[in-house]
Amino acid sequence: MQSEVAMSKPVNNPKTREWQAMSREHHLAPFSDYQQLAEVGPRIITKAEGVYLWDSEGNKILDGMAGLWCVAVGYGREELVQAAAAQMRELPFYNTFFMTAHPPVLELAKAIAELAPAGMNHVFFTGSGSEGNDTMLRMVRHYWALKGKPSKKVIISRVNGYHGSTVAGASLGGMKFMHEQGDLPIPGIEHIPQPYWFGEGGDMSPDEFGVWAAGELERAIDRLGEDKVAAFIAEPVQGAGGVIIPPDTYWPEVSRICRKRGILLVADEVICGFGRLGSWFGSQHYGIEPDLMPIAKGLSSGYLPIGGVMVADRVADAFIEKGGEFFHGYTYSGHPACCAAALANLEIMQREKLVERVADDIGPYLQAKWRALGDHPLVGEARMVGLVGALELVPARGDRSRKFASVGEAGTLCRDLCFDNGLVMRAVRDSMIISPPLVLSHEEADDMIARIVRTLDQTHAALKKDGRLAA
Ligand code: PXG
User: Fold this and answer.
1) Residue closest to 272 by CA, chosen among 80, 428, 116
2) Residue 1: pLDDT band by 50, 70, 90 thresholds?
3) Which of the four pLDDT bands, split at 50, 70 and 90, describes residue 9?
4) Is the pLDDT of residue 293 over 70?
5) 263 in Cβ contact with 290 (< 8 Å)
6) Mean predicted lDDT score pLDDT of the chain
């Protein structure tokens, strides 16, 4: 992934320099080039309110990425702070191991089950989405062992999928650059192509390509043997891979294949869950009935770290009926303060009808403006579902096969200019990604679009000047 920020402006606040020195001397940050980080120094974010961030230089920045795809209810929600503080006064920590529990973990489990797709009534809590995927992997293999089919171990996932950064998460993910560090993937994980029509659909129509990409799952099952395959995992919409929205034909085909072939279907809802697509879960948007769903991010709007795996009754029942301990758990599984914050977050989302708002109000409003960006000379495709979208930057509009000579250069340039224009967007290769807080107002959406148009114009002019656009 391209690192998020290059501090391109001069530093005026002496505290900024002090913090940057601390970074250089002590902090190994995630997904960062340490040489570059030491040279340039991180941008220091000091506070946030609503959909805006402030850095230590006093710049106000519209957060088009909701933190890291997570701050659904926006920043500065006192209710979440109060809920976590009250819980910390009452019971700051107790574990959920060895036949114990506490009220917030149980109340949160019930609250999530009420929102989840029908028949999905159980949850195992973790500290993050990555841990959720590690849990998922152990759980599905344990499930098949209990079912008397211990040879069903392989998990099929997708090239360019993202499932986290732990050993299992990065192995399940299909990011080659991650696999190259640390000898991944671990054995027992197979990757199939992604349903990325714009980049890889060739001459097929999107619908034909969706069927083809789903067919790759069936061909992988045939190759590996049905008796060896435990599960298929995919994000309803790929997030970190570049907001890849599958063709309409994809998910129905995948669901059919999983059912027919007796393969568990895992929908990684870490980004799509909790309203991002205008439904509580991405699975509901696509009519998927998953067996397991890793969750995190929007569950607590990122105020405190919490994730988990939702488990369908048909899977959970196998554990309950067979008995025997599941030897797995994290000290912070179901941390009381995190659960209390998540409960308050879900209460806000329900009270303010944020999911409905994405489906019926701000979602369609932003989507219309977003699609209009598709007319910009630098944009090959402008796609969005709910409140998550991508702009494909291209050197020659109308020709999907033409890419920039050096992949990622246009994206990085655009991303840096975007920051200078007071907006956070992520660059993935040469596409620009947006995933704003679900509370985004119409005025803030207009502000965001205006900043994007200015940034696209500047990026286009710079690329043109350097001769990097097709003639
Ligand atoms: N699954 C999915 C679908 C994710 O998007 C994870 C699992 C892992 O969650 P944790 O909580 O362990 O980070 C994620 C996380 C990016 C970016 O730059 C995306 C994620 C994390 C960090 C950066 O797009 N997604």
Assistant:
1) 116
2) low
3) low
4) yes
5) no
6) 96
Residues ≥6 apart with Cβ < 8 Å to 218: 257, 261
- Cα end-to-end span (Å), the chain: 29
Give the model's confidence band at 13: pLDDT under 50 very low, under 70 low, under 90 confident, else very high: very high
DSSP 244: B
Cβ pair 306, 338 in contact under 8 A: yes
By alpha-carbon position, which residue is closest to atom 16 of ligand 1? 240
| Single pTM value for the model | 0.97
CB 451 within 8 A of CB 418: yes
Residue 470: the pLDDT is 84
Nearest CA-CA partner of 1 in 27, 25, 28, 32 = 32
Answer for the pair 184, 171: CB distance below 8 angstroms, yes or no: yes
CA of 297 to the centre of ligand 1 (A): 8
Task: Name residues contacting ligand 1 (CB within 6 A).
Answer: 1, 68, 128-130, 133, 162-164, 169, 235, 239-240, 268, 270-271, 296, 307, 426
CA 184 to ligand 1 centroid distance, Å: 18
Q: Which of 1, 31, 63, 69 to mutate to test the pocket of ligand 1 (most atoms within 8 A of CB)?
A: 69
Q: Which atom of ligand 1 is nearest to the CA of 131?
A: 12
